[in-house]
Amino acid sequence: MFINLSKLITGLTDKILIDDIVNIDKDYLENTDIKDISEIKVSGDIRPYENNFELNLNIKCTLTLICSISLKDVKYDIDIDINEIIGESDESLDIEENNKIINNSIDLIPIIWQNIILEVPLKVISPDVELKNLKGDGWEFITEEKVENTDIDPRLEKLKEFLNE
User: How far apart (Å, rounded) are the C-alpha atoms in residues 3 and 18?
Assistant: First the structure.
């Protein structure tokens, strides 16, 4: 997804609007926990920022991840905002390699992919997984509801007084 920045560079326009659907090549999925990715809805704009450009994007897509317990497919929706500076390298700004302009254009795919990878959770659990067999010798899986419903040790009850001050 190459964006030509010539109009911004010459001052013909004050921003470039982006509203597109992007498909990521399946080669990107290698060495990740992502099994599949839907079409990516990209919307936003690029504006001048000092001697560089400001990239403001919203990315929406659905990832197919593998459940950590049952190994079933789990759909994981992503809706993220990207605010980055793109342009020529400058001492005052540390611009990443993906964000550099080459021949008055920039490829947004590496920037989009980098931000999607940052949103992938370490573990996902399918909502239909039965958690009844998750016990072992001296341990058990505790859900958030169990943690909230457990009573506090009366010896630690006095600590609440210190936290309320």
Answer: 9
pLDDT (0 to 100) of residue 75: 95
Q: What is the pTM of this model?
A: 0.70
Q: How is the chain classified by DSSP, letter by letter? A: -EEE-HHHHHTS-S-EEEEEEE---GGGGTTSSEEEE--EEEEEEEEEETTEEEEEEEEEEEEEEE-TTT--EEEEEEEEEEEEEESS--SSS---GGG--BTTEEE-HHHHHHHHHHH--S----TT---TT-EETTEE---HHHHHHSPPPGGGTTHHHHHH-
Mind listing the pLDDT tens digit for each residue in 70-116? 889 999 999 999 998 887 655 544 545 555 666 777 888 989 999 99
Q: Residue ranges per domain, the chain?
A: 2-119, 135-164
Using alpha carbons, select from 131, 23, 25, 123 the residue that is nearest to residue 65: 123
Model confidence pLDDT, tens digit, residues 139-154: 877 777 777 766 777 7
State both tokens at 118: 């940052």
Position 165 confidence tier, pLDDT thresholds 50, 70, 90: low
